[in-house]
Write a structure and sequence with these properties.
Glutaredoxin; 6 strands; globular
Length: about 150
């Protein structure tokens, strides 16, 4: 069962490594909402959803923090070179938390890819969504949280 509504954002700790940029939880809280996106290099749905997510990221890059978490689904998914190339191939320019030991995945109680966790600017969970076809709903939730701030 994933995190419950209004839960505090888990600490961003236990990474295998960060790609593109490194974030600490306290850097994300206080200024703007944060969207944390779980994906895997072996996930076809993740690849299909990525162009839509990238458009969302580009539309809201000044208003929302975006963080991706690579959650391996198999031993082969733990290959750092494969993850790096997958991020490049999919146009992932935001920070990527590589979670080879599933420490952040477990903190989120996340079981799915793609999965999206939208936190308000105070670091409380506002919306959770899984699957590839909900970007329109995610956009509406981002608009709502921004209008609320």
């Amino acid at each position: 069962m994933p995190l419950k509504q209004k839960s505090d954002m888990p600490e961003l700790a236990g990474e295998t490594l960060w790609l593109n940029k490194e974030w600490k939880k306290e850097e994300l809280i206080g200024s703007k909402p944060t969207l944390i996106h779980f994906w895997s290099v072996s996930c076809g749905l993740c690849e299909e959803a990525m162009p839509k997510l990238n458009k969302l990221r580009d539309s809201y890059q000044n208003a929302v923090h975006f963080v991706s978490v690579h959650m391996p689904r198999s031993k082969r998914d733990r290959d750092i070179d494969k993850i790096t190339k997958g991020a490049e191939r999919n146009g992932i320019t935001q920070a990527v938390f590589v979670d080879n030991d599933h420490l952040l995945t477990n903190a989120f109680q996340n079981e799915y890819v793609p999965a999206y966790y939208l936190f308000d600017k105070d670091g409380r969970l506002y919306h959770v969504q899984t699957g590839d076809d909900g970007i329109r709903l995610l956009r509406k939730k981002i608009e709502r949280i921004l209008n609320r701030s």
